What does this fold into?
Amino acid sequence: MTQPTSTTMIPRDEAAPWRLRALLERGLPLTERPWLALAEACGMSEGEVLAWVERWRREGLIKRMGLVVRHHALGIRANAMVVWDLPDEHVSEVGRQLAAEPAVTLCYRRRRRLPEWPYNLFCMIHGTRRERVLAALDEIAGRHGLQETPHRVLFCRKAYKQRGGRYTREERI
Amino acid sequence: MAELDALDRRLIDAFQRDLPLCTRPFAAMAERLGVSEAEVLERLQTLQQGEVLSRVGPVFDHARAGASLLAAVAVPEAECDTVAAAINRSPGVNHNYAREDLAREDLARDGQVSGIDYNLWFVMTAADEVQLEARLEALEEELERPLLRLPMVEGYHIDLGFPIPWAELGGP
It folds into this structure.
């Protein structure tokens, strides 16, 4: 069988890319030809698999590809989820500012749930020791004038699960 | 903490985001690090078995790939492990943590605490919003507790491929 290029690729089996996505969510097989192993498992050629992955990377469905670390297992366990109650008109601007802070590893706006949850901006600071994380947070709050903004700091106490998201339907696998 | 040597660290530093897209990616990685393909594969297998690596492969954009939601539930301390185990069994759960609010504990000692103490936090994913909501409702019923649902409105920075602070972690 000749291997198609990405421009001439016409999928014969519409379910095959879904099977590939489901398998990719679980990670590559650690063998010399991982794409070939995936190709055989989902009914494509190795070239087709590479073309799909290249396309998904280009389109942004795949954000990054490589070694996905479990920070907790490495000893990066002082992970603070800092939640802020910001006025709706400021939250996007502050969110973008905090996202640019090197210590901030995740930053997003979430819906409030009043009355039980008034916080609308979340940022994560990963570290090895709580004192350092709190010191970094103090500096960040100072730089962005957030000292008076109501916020809470929730440190990770125990990790029960840390794995990749699974988005494909089981019946497609 | 797992014992990682210099080669393990170089592997992680070099390839958290740039896995070569070619037929023999581990050979390409090995060449860049000046070791053999077999050595790279062995290291990756060990790191994965030792739970240091979740996996080697793509990280999907959560918004493009399907539906996902951060949820929380308030549970008495003594029941945390049991409830967390039920959450872990629930389909679609990919992150699940117990979290503690230090300031809140200070307030509690002073008798000033109010509101709900959400202490179990998890992310649930699904193919679409309908499947996600069905999963959340099923879990809510099983736990007999309301879940706090916190959908993302806007993402500013979502990338956990940050450089590992080896110096802080100690070791060789």
In short: Strands of chain B lie at 53-60, 67-73, 93-101, 120-126, 148-150, 152-158.
